[in-house]
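Hi C.,

You asked whether I'd gotten around to modeling the 412-residue construct. I have! Everything is below, sequence then structure, no commentary in between.
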Amino acid sequence: MELRALETLEDGDTEEDTAMALQRLVELTASRVTSVRSLRVQYRLIRKLGSGSYGRVLLAQPRQGEMPGKQSDDGSMDVAAVEDGGDEGLGGLTVEELQQGQETALALEDMMALSAQTLVRTEVDELYEEVRPLGQGRFGRVLLVTHRQKGTPLALKQLPKTSTSLRSFLYEFCVGLSLGTHSAIVAAYGIGIESAGSYSFLTEPVLHGDLITFIQPKVGLPQPATQRCAAQLASALEHIHSHGLVYRDLKPENVLVCDPDCHRVKLTDFGHTRPRGTLLRLTGPFPYTAPELCAPPPFPEGLPIQPALDAWALGVLIFCLLTGHFPWDQPLVEADPFFEDFIIWQASGQPQDRPQPWYGLSPVADALLWGLLDPQPRKRSPVSSIKGYLGQPWRQRGGEAEELAKELKEDG
């Protein structure tokens, strides 16, 4: 269970004014309009959702029998539909929740189509000078660069074409653009680059590395820093959920730190983010993965994802920040004794009988994490629930309550 160890952008030739951008979007959309006759052949009407002076909104399902919403490797974003016309859709999601996911998927498709037309086609080193690497992952790398003419520092994420499709690149690029207005999310700039061997996009530079490098094994972070990080990440996740999306990849490696004392952090990397209701197949047991994703899905097509997945991951991350280790290796009762002990303890309703990994936590932290780590998604507390626990001690170590109170007073 160990935890592993600005300035304004250039006025490039591809910048379009608002009128031109809207005109291009209209042209792209017009080419995708389907006739009513074709729609009736392809879809079965379920029920009417609403109507007005300019038309009506219908809920429909593909006639071929394949439910929309399967997630493919290239970033497909179709969202599950309601089958029975009731108030609940697949996986307990309401009609309104599914509609929001569908609207988000369609908006992203249009944004991707427009972005594909405005890619800058050039070699990166013609426009930007590399300063140093900022990060490296399985699918690409992040570099600190400066604009050759203006000297503006930027972060450039570079994804090789050998492992990244154009669609996957455009998807991550557009999700980042749509979410980057939040203070705890890395701001993405509207410049995508296609080179001979890679796709790249630009973001604000965050220079102090990721959160994993700040977590001391078997110790964690100081309590004030833990609460600051948790509050900012919960706010970022709320923002993502308000856009009809589920982040799906919360872990310390995807949290960038803005200063040495962890006063400000930012969420990054949106390659796994999907619209609410997207059907997700079995993903395998990992420490941050919710238990509903570690068992066979209730539907052959997969499990419709919802914000409760992020609430679970936030609970695991908070535990790691408080202790410096994972609560378990995999959230499966039959496979992990630490998870089994937690489930028994949680069901008992007796906080004082906590298992060994939870010894150092306070009753306040117990209550917070019991809510975020409820094994039943519909009973799980939302990420916003942490607001009611801030400013109270989350650990029982001597002197930490006084340290927390002092820091909160200094922060005003």
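If it helps when you're writing up: Residues 145 and 256 are 17 Å apart (CA to CA).

Thanks,
B.
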